[in-house]
Specification:
The protein has four helices and three strands, in the order E-H-H-E-E-H-H. It has 78 residues and is α+β, with helices and mostly antiparallel strands. Strand 2 and strand 3 form a beta hairpin. Helix 1 crosses helix 2. The longest helix is centred in the C-terminal third of the chain and has 21 residues.
């Protein structure tokens, strides 16, 4: 099982994160996701990915509280 390993390759990490390998390569090239190279292959530590996802969900929570969608403002009478 891919998510039971501490160190994953690009395919395993993309499955774990629910994105395509191409998208994960893009995130790595933009330094959006924690990764390291072992030889010429990208590797991902599950614990680092878990922490990154936790950090991203915290950022997302703060962002969603700042501005409500237009339909939600209309429903609230704003």
């Amino acid at each position: 099982m891919a998510d039971s390993r501490e160190v994953m390759n690009i395919r395993q990490a993309s499955q774990y994160l629910g994105v395509s390998p191409d998208t994960l390569y893009k995130y790595v090239s933009e330094a959006k996701v924690p990764a390291f190279k072992l030889g010429n292959r990208w590797k991902f530590k599950k614990s680092k990915l878990d922490q990154w996802m936790e950090d991203q969900s915290s950022v997302g929570d703060g962002r969603s509280q700042k501005k409500k969608p237009k339909s939600a403002r209309a429903a609230a009478g704003q």
